[in-house]
Amino acid sequence: xxxxxxxxxxxxxxxxxxxxxxxxxxxxxxxxxxxxxxxxxxxxxxxxxxxxxxxxxxxxxxxxxxxxxxxxxxxxxxxxxxxxxxxxxxxxxxxxxxxxxxxxxxxxxxxxxxxxxxxxxxxxxxxx
Length: 128
Known about the structure:
By secondary structure, the chain is an all-alpha fold. The protein contains six helices and no strands.
């Protein structure tokens, strides 16, 4: 008798947008794959791309700040754009192409430089 109610409640919870803390593992996995390709192309780690506790904390801050400023939907859209970019990163062959990829990720998520990235970077010490 209670089973349909429980199933309906579970579906409702599953349909809720994910918050920044729930999105962070997906962002880290996708960004890590892009970073690995960038490191292969560049042969070094000039941008400090390897994940470490400080970078993880700054990324979490940046994602939370994006969610605070623009809402959960934009944070989810950003993470999906990074996930989608992993396959494109595999085809890149120069450092400059990674900058273009980052610009496309931000564009696809509706993230703007002055409205979003600059304030997030000031707050967290690292942008998206």
